[in-house]
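FAQ: What does the model actually see?

It sees only this:
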Amino acid sequence: MQYWLMKSEPDVFSWDDLVAKKKAEWDGVRNHQAQAHMKAMRKGDQALFYHSNIGLEAVGIMEIVEEAAPDSTDDTGKWIAVHVAPVRKLPQGVTLKAIKADPALAGMAMIRQSRLSVSPVSAQEFRHILKMAGE
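And it is asked to produce this:
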């Protein structure tokens, strides 16, 4: 199993929106590196749902339920999307400030490439963030 961090602006698509839908296409990603990460995702992988711009925190865990397929929002046929489903909300959000302050997370891809909307997370980083969230 691989682990990921996927960012969404909560005023556009939030954790609560995902929970209400039960399954959603993670679409609209238009960065080549983020797309490469999405192509590497496999059914059953888990991802941290991260609220970007507003909140700046990891708030839940979701599962990749469908692998890369054409993005329904792309008329060019150039971009892909994956489908995700909620697993559980974190007991407490883990803020960007807390992530940056923790030496165990200093090597996280999201810190090195802060503008990237989809990034890999190591198993150790994933477990560490869950611990920070109170799990």
